[in-house]
Design goal:
The protein is an all-alpha fold. The protein is built from 19 helices and no strands.
């Protein structure tokens, strides 16, 4: 696959590739992290196994900073992007082929692992290519565009694809057939993206393979930068915040969809797949995105320190809607959708504080590398609690589990009380036009 830098970055129009590139970045993540949970629930996998094994799929994003230098050392960013898209397309097709197999759980997990590692590598290459493929003024102009299309991917993945699977379940009367077809559709879309980006993405002159003489010094510098992160002032509190701020949500997110899908006799709400795709994957995700946008706007007015505590409350207290749903087990879909949207809006609003905290921690000479390390801890904060959440739910039952989720909000309040935040951080600076931009989850 030839990847010679024969085309100037300025000779192509960013609108031709940035929206599709970041849509392609979002789709595999949402399939691995969220859609797989719904698929496995519909395929009668236990909540314990769903939460444990799908939480392990966070690992590639946890350790992503460790192999990010390889993307610099081996090949170009453009090559990595298109190569990973090809691998993701093949992985999706293999998951689809594995669904009808007798040992489908093991096979599909193996290919989801391959997709997760490919997606994490694609993230590294795509973000690096964004910096190389655009002028500095274009980079600022397209920050909102890339975030918007990443978030559109979330709605399409958790909403439209799940609704499609639900419709096919009804049409064919066979869950495995429905998910096989759905995954083949996504694989075909990704194959088309691979072809599209192979021909349409620019070939910036700066996107070149690192020379042999610079590789050793680069590797040494990487480990030095990694060590400097752990020498930051107050690093223990910083790590505690990164690992515990989302402790409650990390457990809730793995069991929300199984709860909605489980029969009322099992403590759930008895929704079908299409209804979950509409209420949680569409209305809920839109509310999540709206909360994130509003969170960025208000922080830009008064700063992160001013809004930290309101965001801690908004991140955690709306989780109580699941306690209500578990005890009341309402059948009114509008009511269910409204309560889910409230929780998701609060999560999106509160999560803004977490993202801005990572940006604050990353400030300095090596902000890109240090932010990547922060995102690794962010993924770890979701992975570890998520692994045991399914076992806890099956041991406690849905009612007591969601009560436990509310108890689990306490660590988030404790770490928020311990962190030190510059009163001016996050405020919009009129004199230099600085602003807070949405960042992908």
């Amino acid at each position: 696959m030839s990847d010679a830098p024969t085309q100037s970055a300025q000779s192509t129009r960013p609108w031709l590739w940035i929206p599709t590139l970041y849509f392609a970045e979002g789709i595999p993540y949402v399939i691995v992290m969220n859609v797989s949970v719904i698929m496995y629930k519909r395929l009668d996998i236990s909540n314990t196994d769903i939460a444990l094994y799908t939480s392990w799929l966070y690992l590639p994003w946890v350790i992503k900073p460790l192999w990010s230098p390889l993307v610099d050392l081996l090949g170009t960013k453009r090559l990595w992007v298109v190569l990973m898209q090809a691998v993701i397309a093949v992985s999706l097709a293999m998951v689809a082929l594995s669904v009808p197999a007798p040992r489908f759980f093991q096979y599909t997990l193996a290919f989801l692992w391959l997709m997760a590692f490919s997606s994490a590598t694609h993230d590294i290459a795509a973000d690096g290519f964004y910096l190389l493929g655009l002028r500095e003024d274009q980079q600022a102009a397209f920050v909102g565009i890339r975030s918007t299309f990443y978030r559109i991917a979330m709605v399409v993945g958790e909403g439209a694809l799940v609704m499609l699977a639900g419709r096919l379940e009804t049409h064919y009367g066979e869950v495995r057939v429905a998910w096989k077809i759905t995954l083949f559709v996504v694989a075909a879309v990704f194959a088309a993206m691979f072809v599209y980006h192979f021909f349409l993405m620019p070939r910036p002159a700066a996107d070149v393979r690192r020379s042999r003489e610079n590789r050793g010094s680069f590797a040494g510098e990487f480990f030095k930068v990694f060590a400097e992160f752990f020498k930051k002032e107050g690093i223990v509190v910083i790590l505690a915040f990164l690992l515990l701020f989302r402790f409650s949500e990390a457990q809730l997110v793995k069991l929300a969809s199984p709860f909605l899908l489980d029969a009322q006799s099992a403590g759930g709400l008895g929704l079908d797949t299409s209804q979950v795709g509409l209420l949680k994957g569409t209305f809920g995700v839109i509310a999540l995105l709206a909360g994130g946008v509003l969170g960025g706007l208000v922080i830009s007015r008064r700063g992160l320190r001013y809004w930290l505590w309101p965001m801690v409350f908004m991140m955690n207290l709306p989780n109580v809607v699941y306690v209500y749903l578990a005890y009341a087990q309402p059948s009114n879909h509008m009511l269910i959708g409204a309560t889910i949207s409230i929780e998701q809006f609060g999560y999106g609003f509160g999560f803004t504080a977490y993202m801005l905290f990572m940006i604050m921690v990353s400030e300095g000479k090596h902000k890109t590398a240090h932010f990547a390390i922060c995102t690794g801890f962010m993924a770890l904060s979701m992975m570890l609690p998520g692994m045991v959440s399914g076992w806890l739910q099956e041991y406690l039952g849905y009612k007591e589990f969601f009560v436990w989720v509310m108890v689990s909000t306490i660590p988030g309040f404790i770490v928020a009380a311990l962190v030190k935040i510059d009163p001016e951080f996050g405020k919009k600076k009129e004199e230099d036009g600085a602003r807070i931009s949405p960042i992908e989850d």
